[in-house]
Predict the structure.
Amino acid sequence: NAGVTQTPKFQVLKTGQSMTLQCAQDMNHNSMYWYRQDPGMGLRLIYYSASEGTTDKGEVPNGYNVSRLNKREFSLRLESAAPSQTSVYFCAGGGNQPQHFGDGTRLSIL
Amino acid sequence: GENVEQHPSTLSVQEGDSAVIKCTYSDSASNYFPWYKQELGKRPQLIIDIRSNVGEKKDQRIAVTLNKTAKHFSLHITETQPEDSAVYFCAAGGTSYGKLTFGQGTILTVHP
């Protein structure tokens, strides 16, 4: 039982490059979430999926897209990375249980 | 939308003292209030949560109180230990285990 697994753990991109962050859960969560964490700003919701087949914008969705591929997987895509998207990204599962977080992806955009 | 304010941003205590972190929220429809602890470089982990039909909940050295009328809730840690040093986040949600809005976090340092 791995919980919520994020890949990759670290990534460095150049401005304008694209990238997909992967998240998979084996906890039977109905809902999944993507957050970004910046110093002094807590965790801000980017996008979420309340159930399989649905996605909704959170607080800071600009520059991102998501795909809820199935109940287990929820990916986050940066189409054209910008330095302002340098952050730590956390995926979480929840909906029928308290939210449980993955280990995070540290993303740097140069 | 929901707005959660958390204070203080940093808190320094001596080992054995108590620590209190306070949060206020804006949306009266919020009814679920979890607290997360995040150690340096690690994931946030749930330490305690409370629903709006309960005023207080306790788990060993940790307790959470909720005042729905005033729209504020607090985390109380008694007999603090150096391993309690971490960043603590409060959050508020409109439905149990659903979408959450987080506070900005409190860096707690417990000095031996």
Chain A has a mean pLDDT of 94. The two ends of chain A are 36 Å apart (CA to CA). Chain A touches chain B at residues 31, 33, 35, 40-45, 48, 50, 58-59, 90, 94-104 (CB under 8 Å). Chain A has no helices and eleven strands.
